Fold G-protein coupled receptors family 1 profile domain-containing protein.
Amino acid sequence: MQKLHTHKKKSMKRLRLSSSSGPKTVRTRKTTLTFIVITLIFAISSEIHHALAMILHFVDNLECHMNKAEGTAFYIFLWAVFINNVSNPFIYGVSDDRFRSHVKEMLKKNQDFKPNNRKDSKSSVSE
């Protein structure tokens, strides 16, 4: 009789620890989550925009039947597609350390170039 060779199964705990270790994996997960959030915000904002644009196109005199509050809400949601462009820097700022440090560095350099804050500028008041 021949003896069958069996492999030991890794426990789920060991499997999770081995698959989630390392800074590269953490960075990959953060990047994946960032792109998922950006994609969801884009999909939601563009779907709202396209749905309301179609309603505006197919319903005759829709704007005439709205009061001021309804019209304001309608057009705010119609142009909600721009929420995607506004939200991207905030999402990257929260999730990406390099992006945050580059923005801080850029703002710091911008402060140095303001006329009132320059160290080498002389006062414009003459004697």
Q: What stands out?
A: Helices lie at 12-20, 23-58, 68-78, 83-95, 97-112. The radius of gyration is 28 Å. The chain has five helices and no strands.
